[in-house]
Amino acid sequence: MVRGLGYVLLGWMLYLAVPVAAQTDTVMTDTITADLVLPTDSLVQTPVESYAVQVVDTTRTINYWNITRRTGEMIAAKPDTFLTDYFHRTHAEGSGVAMASLGNLGLPSESRVFFERADRSQFMFSDPYSVYMQQPDKFDFINTKIPHSNVAYQRAGGRQMREERFRALVASNFGKQLNVGFDVDYLYARGFYQSQSAKHLDWAFFGNFLADRHQIHLFINPADYTNAENGGLLQDEYISYPDLMDAQNISSLDIPTRLSDGTNAVWNKIKGMKVYLNYHYDLGFERQTKILTEEGDTVKQFVPVSSIIYTFDYQNAKKKFYGDSTLIANYYDGLMPLPGLLGNAGDSTHYWSLSNTLALSLREGFSPWAKFDLTAFATQDIRKFYFFDNQPENQYATYLGGEIAKRSGKILRYHGQGSLGVLGYNLGDVNLSGTIETRIPLWGDTATVQADASLKNLSPTYYENHYKSRYFNWNNDFYHIKKVRIGGQVNIPHTKTNFSLVVENVTNYIYFNSNGLPQQCEENIQILSARLDQNFQYKALHWDNQIVYQASGNSEIIPLPALAAYTNLYVDFKIAKVLTIQLGANAHYWTKYYAPSYEPATQQFKLQDRDDRVKVGNYPLISGYLNCHLKQTRFFIEYYNISPMLLSPPEYFSLPHYPFNPTVLKLGLSVDFIN
To answer: Which 8-state DSSP code applies to residue 324?
Structure first.
């Protein structure tokens, strides 16, 4: 064993010695082709752990990429500049095959598809806003040879119910290496039902510096999310059977809700800040590179051999629940604040975390034998949690881990990552994931076959174990959550087909019960999901489809619709060769199931009360639209939720007692300014 460890140590010493030797000014000669970039649209549904297809083409006028959060590796990205479904991506339903939400734009939401949900974060109160929140590893960094900006605006409803969203992106390079910019997202939706308004202000200041030896990414994100809570409709019959309620001619604002009296309201507010900095120092050498062009030009190219990586990741967030104490007491059946806290219905908690990561990486491609990236890292986390009584709770955690990745190549690509908690609160945590992809000739085209797997043994988050508020309190000692997932997918571009199959076994699953309290299920639960993305086209007629089948081993704990689908039927044509028009209709559908309900005080999705359960589903959400593109401008007109005009009785409920917005006309505009 000692000899084996010695060989491993010697191997790492040799790996680390290579970049030191390569740091000299030796000039080598090699010949490469400029065509190293593979199509980035090969994967329709790529799992979160997948890092396939990630060569960034820096020869383009405008380049977009994402980065991995821990080590800052660059992954080629496609920006949201597509016309198809542009109107649909402007609201929460466009974030997945089937989204469950409180109805209005900007309110909490959760995917009905189990494998579209991420693990619960350290600040779980932010999770329901994930479709709106900016994250450094989901953000599109830019390098542009010309100044670039985009302005987008959408609007729906009359003055009392109006929803509006304004987005602006400005990015500019200062020389070839430095890019800076900002992105602002302002959302204000008054709501189509009582006490349903939402207001978001989300800023992102970003920059990147890309040089031969230095690579820097900076992301600063202050954000503020506020929304009213109405607890859902008091009687669902106002929607399902308006004739019985004599509600044919009343406004949706007049429908009574459970946590509002039409004058006073109850609110949730989340405010936070993210500061992220990633720095790569590359060790390498220069070589003469002959580009295969007619002129046969030869240039000096810097070849990175290894990297020293540092990542600073800080975030804080505060949640505040406040409003009329009488409304809250009535909603919670006379529940009053804890003794000594009477007279103030508000309650709050906040936290901050600081993560520092140091990594060493051996780069792929500097030598014929260097067929993959190899990275080792150490991460130190500090977390602090506060409640309304201002008594902080501290957490510390240390992780060791590594990555191996082959990011280029036309036949085989793969990525594997693993981390182990070695000290502190997350001692014993294991997080392993891997993806492998290959391409095979098929029917005159190239098909992509991908397999992925993950193994997780995760500590419960602090808030899952402990929470202290005026209305909800718990102290748990939950076991580690164990997850084993395996899946694969096949993508055939020629037939516009993508099929994926995923199965996961989870033990000690943590959920919120019907009382709104976290609870752990110690049995093993298996979840199976099969997904088919299939697009058809005949001349100008297009029919795009996404269908997901799901099976839950315990539908009482993890309720899921057996079938969820999205379909989009439209014609696509041009007028005067410059105006592209897409005219059609789309629909979301899912089978009936006992969907989770929503708890306003903790903003978590919970199980329904068994004595008062209702099913939602088996009723499509249909919208008609006109989607257009003219030069650098996209615009749309959407007639949202026309289902009540076609199907009766109208049962367009997203969650128990929470309907989608009623039929309304929506308008949107997006303009790119490229100078």
So the answer is: -
| Alpha-carbon gap, residue 247 to 242, rounded angstroms | 5
Q: Which helix (H) or strand (E) holds 526?
A: strand 518-538
pLDDT digits (tens, 9 = 90+) for 328-365: 888 887 554 444 444 445 689 999 999 999 999 999 87
Distance CA 165, CA 184 (A): 10
Q: Are strands 266-291 and 27-32 parallel, antiparallel or unpaired?
A: parallel
Cα–Cα distance, 614 to 607 (Å, whole number): 11
For the chain, how many helices (H) and strands (E)? Answer: 5, 34
- This prediction's pTM: 0.88
Q: Which residues of the chain have pLDDT under 50?
A: 1-54, 336-344
Q: Element (H or E) spanning 579, and its range?
A: strand 579-590
Phi, psi (rounded to 5 degrees) for 512: -105, 125
- Tell me, letter by letter, the H, E, C secondary structure of 151-210: EEEEEECCCCCCEEEEEEEEEEEECCCEEEEEEEEEEEECCCCCCCCEEEEEEEEEEEEE
* Cα 140 to Cα 66, 79, 80, 212, 547, distances in angstroms: 5, 7, 9, 21, 28
Place of tokens 């990429």: 65
DSSP state of 663: S
CB 572 within 8 A of CB 606: no
Measured CA to CA, the distance from residue 632 to residue 673 in angstroms comes to 7
Placement of tokens 């005026």 in the chain: 470
Domain range holding 457? 2-674
> What is the per-residue pLDDT for 23?
36
Amino acid of residue 273 = M
Amino acid at 651: E
Question: Around Cβ 392, how many Cβ atoms within 10 Å?
Answer: 11
Phi, psi of 217 (to 5 degrees): -125, 130
CA distances from 567 to 472, 528, 535, 623, 628 (A): 41, 22, 9, 11, 19
Query: What's residue 57's pLDDT?
Result: 62
Ramachandran region, residue 641 (left: φ > 0; alpha: ψ -120 to 50; beta: rest) = left
Q: What is the pLDDT of residue 295?
A: 59
Question: How distant is the alpha carbon of residue 674 from its chain centre?
Answer: 28
Q: What is the C-alpha R_g of the chain?
A: 26
Please give the full DSSP string across 461-497, using - where no structure is assigned: PHHHHEEE-SS-EEE--PPPEEEEEEEEEEEEGGGTE
Do 133 and 127 form a contact (C-beta atoms < 8 A)?
no
Selection from 436, 437, 439 nearest residue 417 by Cα = 436
Which pLDDT belongs to residue 367? 78
Of 48, 46, 74, nearest to 454 by C-alpha is 48
pLDDT digits (tens, 9 = 90+) for 151-186: 999 999 998 999 999 999 999 999 889 999 999 999
CATH code for the domain of 65: 2.40.170.20
Torsion of CA 316, 321, 323, 325, to 10 degrees: -140
Q: What's phi and psi for 299, nearest 5 deg?
A: -130, 160
Strands 664-674 and 148-156: antiparallel
Check if the beta carbon of residue 385 is closer than 8 Å to that of residue 395.
Answer: yes
- Encoding tokens for residue 27? 């000039």
pLDDT of residue 238: 92
Which runs of consecutive H residues, i.e. helices, occur in 370-437? none
For residue 301, the model assigns a pLDDT of 82
Among the listed residues 35, 70, 84, 79, the one whose alpha carbon sits nearest the alpha carbon of residue 55: 35
CA 341 – CA 347 distance, rounded (Å)? 10
Identify the residue whose tokens are 């350290």: 122
For 11, the enclosing helix (H) or strand (E) is helix 2-22
Residue 669 identity (one-letter amino acid) = L
**End-to-end C-alpha distance for the chain, whole angstroms:** 63
The total number of structural domains that make up the chain? 1
